[in-house]
Amino acid sequence: MIKSILQHSVSIILTVIFMFTGVGESRAQIRPLGTQYYENQYISNPAFAGMDQGMNINMSYRNQWRAIPGSPVTMAVSGDYRVVDKVGVGFNVYNDKAGLIGRTRVMGTYAYHLPLNIDNRELHFGISLGVMKQRLDEQNIIANPDDVLPARFNQRKGYVDGDFGMAYTTERLTLQGALPNLKKFFNKDNQNTVDGSTYLLAMSYKIGTTLDVVSIEPKISFRGAKDIDNIWDIGTNLKMENNLISILGMYHSDKSSTFGVGLNYENFFIQGFYTSQLAGERQRTGGDFEINLKINLLKDQRR
Questions:
Q1: Which is higher by pLDDT, 20 or 120?
Q2: Is 34 helix (H, G, I), strand (E, B) or coil?
Q3: What is the CATH code for 2-297?
């Protein structure tokens, strides 16, 4: 009798943990990787696949809420390339873990770039399709070995998901919109506990060129979110001559800020980011740290 009550109690506790872990991770995942603001916009909008010259490979690592055990850790690898004059392709592998729950998302992308033949103006369209799978870390659960909840959670199959994006670009202006997690957008994802993003709108404008001593690109974006307040971001990216050094600063409406510094050497660009936490949680959680390596290969001189 006592054993039965204890097993039932553990099951209830695990269910509560799953619920709160999902809420915490949703808040974590609404915060994007810092590299997506400028250097790797492809990971937030598939229309950017193959937009730049050459093949771009990006590798990112981020650790959030470092002061809390089991804090979210994110790793991402992406690549994109314009295979022919108007067609770009890409891939994106994203893995994160927060507490007991881990998520892996693998996507492939097709993008079409339509020149408007007026002052280098272009329209860009992109769609990504792939699979997302969530998994519970059973080895780190302290519970009765006969409990079936963890096994049932991991038995859930991965599901097909997708992203859609559009962009309008000139030599200086970029307007874009994206719908990440299309299954969630169409309300067909009732079991996914993470990633509250529903849409993205952004605008940026370049002042100066790579030949100038200093060039800047102010940007404002608006990110829709599920179950929590929508978030807007405003800031700029400053680059020194020939993009040798870049400095990024973004302020978010949730009262946090992101700062980044990057160094460019030939085909390699390494960038580090620090994001402060919400005003009321900074001392308790610590900040977010992120590092990204970008490698540019196969530069295409046709463009």
A1: 120
A2: helix
A3: 2.40.160.40
Beta strands, E only, the chain = 55-63, 73-82, 87-98, 101-115, 122-136, 159-169, 173-179, 197-205, 214-225, 231-240, 245-252, 257-265, 268-275, 288-297
- Beta bridge partners, 236, equal 218, 249
What's the rounded Cα separation, in Å, for the pair 205 and 202?
A: 11
Both structure tokens of 134: 């969530």
Take residue 193 and report the two structure tokens written for it: 């506990």
User: By C-alpha distance, which of 258, 259, 260 is closest to 231?
Assistant: 258
CA distance 222 to 232: 4
* Residue owning tokens 């800020």: 257
C-alpha 236/C-alpha 25 separation (Å) is 27
DSSP string, 158-209: PEEEEEEEEEEE-SSEEEEEEE--HHHHTT--SS--S--EEEEEEEEE-BS-
DSSP 241: G
* Amino acid (1-letter code) at residue 102: G
d(CA 14, CA 138): 11
Write out the two tokens for 262.
Answer: 């990057």
Q: Which two tokens stand for residue 53?
A: 């010259």
Report which secondary-structure segment, H or E, holds 152.
Answer: helix 149-155
Half-sphere exposure of residue 243: CA atoms within 13 angstroms, side-chain side: 13
User: pLDDT per residue over 211-234, tens digit each?
Assistant: 778 999 999 999 987 777 789 999
Whether 14 shows a pLDDT value over 60: the answer reads no
3-state secondary structure of 97: strand
Per the CB < 8 A criterion, the answer to whether 27 and 196 are in contact is: yes
